Amino acid sequence: MTGPSMNQYPTNSLSHQVKDPYTFAPLPPGATTSADGRPLPHGWADARAHCVAMAGARASGKSLYTAVMIKQLEELAGQFGRVVEAADNSTLDRYRSHYEEPLYQEMRNMPATPPASANDAYQRDPLIFSLGRWTGPDGVNRMNYLVFRDVAGEDLENPPADTSNLAFFQHADLIIFLFDPLRVAQIRTYLKGIIPAQSLTGGDPEDVLRNLFRILETARPKLAVTISKFDTLQKLSEASGSRWAQIMGNNGAAFRRDSGWRYDPDDQLLLHMEIESLLRYMEADRLVNIIGQDYGWTPNQPHAGGWRGGQQVSSDRWQYFAVSALGESPRGEQLSRHGIAPYRVLDPVRSILSKHLVFEAAGA
Ligand SMILES: Nc1nc2c(ncn2[C@@H]2O[C@H](COP(=O)(O)OP(=O)(O)OP(=O)(O)O)[C@@H](O)[C@H]2O)c(=O)[nH]1
Ligand SMILES: [Mg+2]
Question: pLDDT for 195-221, tens place per residue?
């Protein structure tokens, strides 16, 4: 596939654009309703909306990630004297009943997200949260919103013939593609006896990625290729004597450290390179190569790459991340008694927010 025109969707541009929270597509300046006539939150046309969509196979961890990411954002906002709030009642109700209650009150796993065509598809509308006012690099103080779409893995494993309902992916500011390390047979073998047996649902991540690229057509929004359930890989340091134990036990590695409440692009770059090596070591070369081929650096794509120390590094269009929403494997339906201990969950979203100085001291 040839590379798209990078100017077609200037999703990384710092210039102000009014975005439709339902389709993620640009709206005319000053718009007060979405393309399909729904009223937008007050002051929307002057605000900046960061539009993020989840992708990944079934059971790759998208919904748990969504639940925990919002909680983490709330905590981070508190440190800056800001609050993260649902921007409409629908977001408030759906976040509470489908994400917060099961995970944080009942401490149990969530059911699989229904396909978008189902009557009870609560994810058909995005979750919209206000992030408070921040001064961007243009010196303008604005309200910022996070518009977040959880997606059913089923819809990405078997996309409907007409993918127009998934066209929002084309206009996203960020797609977080989750890759479940437990899909790798070798890793499951090493983890036997170290973590409770996990169910094996979910399709091939390569197929999901190909389907996603088909939905994207020529658009190439920023892609965060993210190893989910990273706690499982961290446990490999206990698989004594194995090469995996050496790799995961390496105290010098960026992935051994949580990013805490800081987001440091240099640390992220280091992590990016480590995760690429890990994926190759997991024999996920094909996945890495598919991404390189469709998103990779070529001399005619000026936005797509960079070099450091003679090595091609993190492209501006795609980056590797590692996250754990739970911090520990659940036992059956029940989450760990130790509670939820997220790891690097905010890194992907902060990679786009930080460019606008949101949750950065410089923008506070
Ligand atoms: N060890 C571990 N397991 C996790 C983590 N996050 C999710 N899981 C497991 O993965 C299962 C699936 O998570 P979901 O978030 O429901 O997956 P999903 O991607 O939303 O799946 P669909 O809705 O079917 O697309 C959970 O029930 C957990 O058992 C994590 O951070 N660590
Ligand atoms: Mg889900």
Answer: 888 878 888 999 999 999 999 999 999
Tens digits of residue pLDDT in 280-302: 888 888 888 899 888 875 433 33
CATH at 224? 3.40.50.300
Tell me how far apart the alpha carbons of residues 323 and 182 are, in angstroms, rounded to a whole number: 14
Residues at Cβ < 5 Å from ligand 2 ion: 62-63, 113
Atom of ligand 1 nearest to the CA of 150: 20
- List Cα–Cα distances, 102 to 65, 171, 310, in angstroms: 13, 31, 48
* CA 54 to ligand 1: nearest atom: 19
Q: Give the ligand whose atoms come closest to the C-alpha of residue 340.
A: 1
- Distances in Å between the Cα of 302 and the Cα atoms of 2, 44, 77, 217 are 15, 32, 34, 20
Distance (Å, rounded) from C-alpha 251 to C-alpha 83? 35
- In angstroms, the CA 80 to CA 84 distance is 11
Domain hosting 334: range is 18-363
Residue 231 half-sphere exposure toward CB, CA atoms < 13 A:
18
Residue 9 lies in a domain: no
Structural domain count of the chain = 1
For residue 259, the tally of other CB atoms under 10 A from its CB is 17
Residues with CB under 6 A from ligand 1: 56, 58-64, 109-110, 112-113, 152-153, 228-229, 231-232, 324-326, 329-330
